[in-house]
Amino acid sequence: MKTKLFCVLIGVWPLFASAQNAQPIPSAGAGEQSITLEGVRYENIRWGRPTPASVTIYHKNGAAKIPLEKLPPYLQKRFNYDATKASEYRAADSEAEAKAREQRKDEIQLREQEDQTRRSVSEAEAEARRTASKADAEALEKKREAAEDVAIQKRANEAQEQARKAANEAQARIISDEIRALKFEIRALESELAGMRVLSSAQLGFDGLRKASAKRDNLNSVVKAKRRLMGSKQSQLSGLQR
Question: Mean pLDDT of all residues in the chain?
């Protein structure tokens, strides 16, 4: 009995210790718990399994999915909230959902194409059965083959279009990275120019002022060239995104 009591105390002690450092969940009554988040009060709550970005809360009226950033700090700590991990999790989840939607769309289109092909084949076969003439049967067979050829060509065209889109997306990502790099370089050059503008002739002397002026002219030329290049990249990116 003493061993069991000791084990219970060991298991409960971390919860008791964290409760000393965190605001407790307010109680709505004996055996009930409640919490208010963004003006909404949840009663008889029970916490579900959290993700890096959210946690499910079960309450007397149903359930709700709560972003971890909306929780009070003591609950964020309880669920190991990390803003960077939450953002990465949401981005990965969104990307996975988008890929799943695209895959479902492709599967539906493929099934529709297969159904259409089967219907075309069935219609051709039914017509062949209704026609006793060998010539009519041969004509219907050609019709079936033509329907299959159309379906095959359609799938090939769609595969080519998907490949083109994938290539455009890859190129767009490369150009986007180049644009970001150009923006960073332009900001660095403009920051250097801004620092040079505050220097006076008393600080530099005549010769230093002349050199500084030449350097500013050179930096301005470089900035203009990079801006032209960035504009060209942005136009190219717009063309790929149409």
Answer: 80
CA–CA gap between residue 78 and residue 50 (Å, rounded): 10
Distance CA 58, CA 152 (A): 51
| Residue whose C-alpha is closest to residue 178's, from 186, 188, 167 | 186
pTM over 0.70: no
Q: How far is CA 122 from the centre of its chain?
A: 43
Q: How far apart are CA 189 and CA 177, in angstroms?
A: 19
CA terminus-to-terminus distance, the chain: 74
Range of weakest confidence among 35-44, 50-59, 64-73, 214-223: 214-223
Residue 215 token pair: 């350097």
- In the chain, alpha helices (H): 2-21, 73-78, 83-130, 134-197, 201-241
Residue ranges per structural domain of the chain:
8-81, 86-195+222-241
The vertex-124 CA angle with 120 and 129, nearest 5°, equals 150
Residue 26 DSSP code: P
3-state secondary structure at position 43: strand
- Cα pseudo-dihedral 105, 110, 112, 115, rounded to 10: -160
